[in-house]
Every structure is written in structure tokens, then in C-alpha cells.
Fold each of these.
Amino acid sequence: MSSAPRVGDVKPDAIVERTVQTPCGELAVERPVRVADAATMVIFGATGDLAKRKLLPALYNLNGDRLLPEGFAVVALGRDAMTTDTYREKVSRDLQEFGTVTTERLKCEWLESRLSYLPSNFDDPAAYERLRETLAAPIAADGGRPPNYLFYLATPPLLFGPIVERLSAAGLLAEGRGWRRVIIEKPFGHDLDSARALNRRLAGLLTEHQIYRIDHYLGKETVQNIMAFRFANGIFEPIWNRRYIDHVQITVAETVGVEQRGSYYDRAGAMRDMVQNHLFQLLALTAMEPPISFEADAVRDERVKVLRAIQPLRLSDAALVRAQYDANAATNARAYRDEPEVAPDSRTETFVALRLLVDNWRWADVPFYLRTGKRLAARATEIVIHFKRAPLVLFRDTPVECLQPNQLVLRIQPNECIALRFEAKVPGPRVRLGTVKMDFDYADYFGAAPRTGYETLLYDAMTGDSTLFHRADIVEAGWAIVDPILRAWAETADRLHTYASGSWGPPAADALLAREGRAWQPPGM
Ligand code: BG6
């Protein structure tokens, strides 16, 4: 007969499980996060921006959190002629510059000692032969080599298909002794047809469970918290629908321009670069039905259903505004058309605002207003749920504009917080109302642990959890919504508004809401 569990009990076969007392006084088994599987991560494009700014700092942080196994290695592939030693020195410098925390020598050394560099031309089959030999060579003192391979394609999108084909031809994708997974960066396709073609090409070489299509917004803590907030709290779900919600606003505002990415951005534009992926995922998490479990496919089934329920977009200023940033003499900011590698007569949009309807029982007739842009007045990512106004009957003498509807703000960037705005009586003999705010700041409760957003995603890929990655159908559903618009923009001279760099976008974006008696909520309020 086994004895009853006591606080502090540790299961003999699991250094990771122990019995703890919950705040309600019950005994529960606590399962700390498991260490990632022993694996070699192969980074294509290892000398590029993404690797230095995000991937290596994320690996450094994962190691700091003790989530990487001893059997972990990185094979870095890039076009630059470098040796492993010079690459390690570069990483050491980059970690100091781009790491999210102050780097510690010992932890840097742990990571650097696991790096090897292979100068490679990704079109050359010989590069894959060398990679195969490197992956087969022992790295550990005991002659061991992690059996699993994680390939990260941090390359221009045109190379995604060819690299996977060459990996397959070199026999590097066949699972047997260990798993083989491929992380594909965005943009996944340029339109619906190209996304479908890439999906088909990958499906001929990999099974869906090996493909991890990344969207770094899903790696952000507060984005993941949307699900926890909605489904772990009994008080919000009953009012999360068309009976109580008037409309939803999603803003992803950036202060940066296109920087050095003009040649990519000028062919992409805000709709492809931000709306089709990041904004639609914020919308999907906000609007989805509760999944039957937190299994990857259960969650992804619900996300894709939201996208499929979106009504077709119309080309009209009442539903869709596109704009491009102009110069601002006051701040010396240049116009988009004067950016390096941007066509002087470019019609690419750097700002989009749109009104969407999610045509299902929960959301019928509730507008979702989305906006995103570069060179806006502030950096802010927010989802604001606007609840319906309370009946005015008791406050007849109060000016209507003073009786503000309740708002719930899910702030994702720059500071992660959740705030509820509601009305309260202003102290004094007269009945006057004022809006007050209750807020929860992540940093106050959980401490500020600056992250790149890639930690969770890399860790999930190394533990086989694809919940936060896109399935083929999710990517295609996103493209299916924007594709008709992108085609129409390419074929017609539909209106392109302009806005001053550093403003909140063109007046037409305000008119989109004003037409329906609403206004954008200024971020950060
Ligand atoms: C990327 C876009 O996916 O997201 C960039 O390509 C954009 O244009 C970036 O600047 C924004 O990400 P974040 O995490 O800074 O909000």
C-alpha cells in the first residue's frame, strides 16, 4: 500500500516532480518544465540579422533557464567565409550587443563551445554532404551526438523550398533514430497560390508534424496570455460575445520605418508583412471558441475556424484604408519613397486599417477594426475590447459622452499589461462620473524578464509542441482573406492615402470608425 503524499515528496524516477501545497491548501504534483530533447540545431542564414538579434540571444536565455540539454549543439551555416573560431567570437560580441540580459561569461562559453560554423552555398549539394558529415561526427567527449535535428531556415523565402529539397536528397530529413523538424520563417508565400505551392512542395518531403511555420507574435508572452486570460477565468467568457461586446480594436503600431529592408518591404507592404500573419493571429486568439484541450491541433482547429469565418473584404474606404508614410519636416523624417531600395514611385502601403466581420454565432455584426503601420506616433501593440454602453436611464442628467463604455485592454507591447476601464462616481455632492482604470502590469507581478520572443518557440520546436506554429491550413486561410485585395490593388489604381511620418496614420483611418460613431482608442491610455 502506498503512503499518502506529503509536501516535498520527490518521485524517485523524476528529478522534476515534487508534491507541493497549493494556495487553497491542497496537495498537488508540480511538474517543472521539461528540458528540451538532446538535439543539434542547424541554422541556415546564421550570419544574418535574425540569428544575431533573436535566435542566439534566445538560445542564451533558454540555457540560462536551464531548458537546454547537455546534448545540445548548433551547426551554423552562412555564406560568409569564417571559421568556427571567428564565428564564436562574433557570437560572443553579438550576445553582448543584442542579448536581452547582461551576459555572463560562463553561460556564453557554454553556448559558444557548442557552435560550429560551415561556410556554405545553399544551392550547392556539396554543402549538404559536408553538413551530413558534420552531423555524423561526435561532439561529446563520450563520442555521442544528439540524435535529433532541428533545421531553422532563417533565409530569404525563395530558398525555403530548395533547401528542404536538398536536405531531403542528402537523407537528412528521414526520421528513424531521432526526430527531424524544420522551422520555416515568414513570409510563408507571397500570395495564396505561392503559399499553397510551398505547402505542397514541403508536403512531398516532410510530414506536417515535422513542419514548424513560425510567427514570432505567437512567442510573445502576452499573446499566449490571451488564451490563459480568456479560458482560465470564469468571469470573462460569459460576456465575450456579441451580446456584450460592441466592437474590438487591434492596433500594431511601429515607430520604425523600413530601415534596411526596402527591397523586401517594397514588394511586400503592410498587408503581407503584418496583417496576413501577426494581426490575424491576434484576432484569431481573441475571437476563437474554447478549444477542447490545449493539444496543438485542438487549438489550431479553433484558430483556423475564426479566419474562415471572416467575411470577404471589400475595396472601399468604409472597410479598408491603405496609406504610405510621407516626410515630416518637423522631425526631419524622410518619406517612404526616399528610403533606400524603395521605388521612387512606389505604391506599397506602409499602413493598413480595416474593418472585419467574423461571421459566426458569437461575433455576428461585431466589427473588428485592425490597424498597423510603420513610422507611427508610438510603438504599441494592443487589443481593446469595447463593451456595450450601459443603459443611460439612471444618468439622464449626465452628458452621454461622459458615460464611457467599459473597455478591456490587452497590451502586448511595449509594456505587457491588462487593464479594465470603468466608470466611477467622482467624489462630491453631485452625481458625476469619471473613468477609472484597474490594471495589472506583468512586470509588477512576475518581474521583468526581457525576452526575444523566440525562446518559447525554439523550446516548443525542440519538445515537439506545435501549438504556437501555423498549420498549412492556417497560413492558407490568412492568405485567402487578403489575396483578392492584393490582386485588386495590383490591378487598379485604388486610392493610396499618405500620412506624415510620426502621426497616427491618415485621416481616412479615423473616418473608418467615425462613420460608425466610434474612434480609435489612443494606445497606452
Ligand atoms: C516582422 C515584420 O514580422 O515583425 C517587420 O516583418 C516588423 O516589418 C516586425 O517590424 C515587428 O515585430 P515586433 O516584434 O517588433 O513587433
Amino acid sequence: MKKQILTAPGGESYPILTGSGLINTCGQEISSIVKPCRVMIISDTNVAPLYLEIVRKSLADAGFSVNTHVVSAGEGSKSVAVFGALLESFAEAKMTRTDLAVALGGGVIGDLTGFAAGCYLRGIRFVQMPTTLLSAVDASVGGKTAVNLQHGKNLAGLFHQPIGVYCDVDTLQTLTPHEMADGAAEAIKTGILGNPDLFSIYENGNPLSELEDVISHAVAYKSMIVTEDPEEHGVRKLLNLGHTPAHAIERMSNFVISHGHAVAIGLAMMTRAAVKRGYLESDEGTRILHTIARNNLPVVCPYQAKEMAEIAAIDKKAAASQITVILPEKIGRCRMEKIAISELEALFADGLEGQA
Ligand code: GLY
């Protein structure tokens, strides 16, 4: 079991536990940071049949009074309608300011639960129990919460830090190769940003047999960034490497291309653009592209630069007429560049140039 600590805004910190068996012992673990209270576990139709009863029992045995709320699996549940229904469910269960929400699932469940917990009664506490690699290495840590609007991804949300993150690595064993690859994309992103050891697990190693190390490397880097810049005024923008094209790709595919796969294409695009613009040596660029492909992820974008730029212009990261884009300089270091929205098409075009 690995225990890491993230220092949240205001100097509060929360534990991030990664290890085997946490699904069974979560009640004990959570009761060490919260007195028994009413709990609402939020999960989805894929995860609930596997783990909801185990988590419910563990929390009940630890003295919590447990309610559950299950939503349909998939990105469609990150909607205003599902968010509203969850708030009503909190109210129906008579949840108070001292009660607790538990997000049991992947990024959709974590984002939805965190947003509802942040809004209900102007904010109640929540914990994350990620059951996907993508959520374990990125989304469950750092307090970003959101739902999608018709106009784009994550356009309604707030920063609301969890009070604990509990990742049982055994739950990752049931993931499909496609879901594992989704998580690999975010882990490779973190490696490119600031952790060459993590990158090398994906470049040469066997990540599936080193999941605890993968997650703790990613959590260590992300905790450092979030501690320094919890609300993304500066250095946290680095974590958006590849995400500006990725969000456009997800939307243009009608979410058929999953988040991790879209991030992989976005990483490949920013890598090619960085080489073309002279920021990144071409052999390092080649290593990044090979590493993405080695982990069953796409490096070729099916869309044109112009249409992607139009969609990305409404991305929430666009402030007024400018947007911050992230470009690799070497494996383990990236640069932030503020560009005009009107320059996005040329950047994407550089990212598409030379793709197979
Ligand atoms: N997923 C990027 C962040 O949490 O800032």
C-alpha cells in the first residue's frame, strides 16, 4: 500500500492511498478521517454490479449510514440533467453539511460526484474511489469537477478537493485493454511533462505489472503541481498537454473516441508541432510517438486542422482571444505558450503534418 499526501488550498491535506484490497477496507480507512455520518455512494451501471455492495458493506460495518445512487455508464451521465437528479437524490436522502459523498467509478463518476458535492448545500465533503487507470493517474486527484454542456466538454464545474482518494489496484484488473490504454495516455502525458522514469515504464517496461508504481509516480507529479497552483492560474495549465486538440476530437467524434485515445492523438500532435517549431529534438519526438503507439494508442488524427480549431475556440481554456498551449521541449519538460485563438489552426496543422 502506498500513501501519498496532497496539500490542498488553505493548507489542508488529504491522503491518496493506492494498493490492493482497499475496496474491502475503505470503511475503516474513511472512518479514520471522517466520523461516521450519512454517506451517498455514487456509481454507474458497469461498476455497481462489481463493487457497490462490497463498498456499501465496508462503510456500513464502519458505522456509516449508507445510501446509493447509480447512473448509466458513459460520458452521457456528465450532463446537467444527471447532475440535477443527483442533487435531488442528496436532498431526498436528507444529506446535511456534515455528510459525505463517495465517487465509486471512473472519471465520469468522479467529475459528476465532485461537482454535485461542491454545489449541494454550498459544498459537502466527498471522497474518490477511482476504478479506472485514467481516473487513478489523473482525474481523481486535484479537485477538478464538471459536467458537459451542449457547447462543450466540462463547461460547467468548480474546483472542489476530495478529502481522500482510495484506489484499489485490484479493481483495475477487470478493465478492458482499451480502458487500460486510456489511462496509459494520461500517464505518458505526465511522463512527458515531468517524470522520465514514468515515461520509461511505458517506453520500455511492462506497465501492467507495475500499476502501483505508475499511479504513485503520476500522483506525486500531479500533487506537486496542484499544491503549487490548485486553481490553474499558472503551472497547472501544463496538465492540459494534448487536451486542447483532444477535447475537440472527442466532441467531433460524438464521444466515440474516448478521452484517453483523444489525449494520445493530442500528445502526438503537440509532439509533431514542437519538433516542427524547433522546440523538441526529432529523435525525442520519435520516441514519444513510438511510446504512444507501443501502448495501443492512436497517433493519427482523423480530422482537419480548420474544423478542430473552430471547436477548440470555445474550449473553456480559451480566455478572451488567447489560449495557453503546451509543447514538449524534452521528455520530462514542456513549455507553456499563450497564442491567439486565430493561431490555433496553424498549430494544429503543424501537428498533423507528416502523420502516416
Ligand atoms: N486533468 C488536468 C488537471 O487536473 O488539471
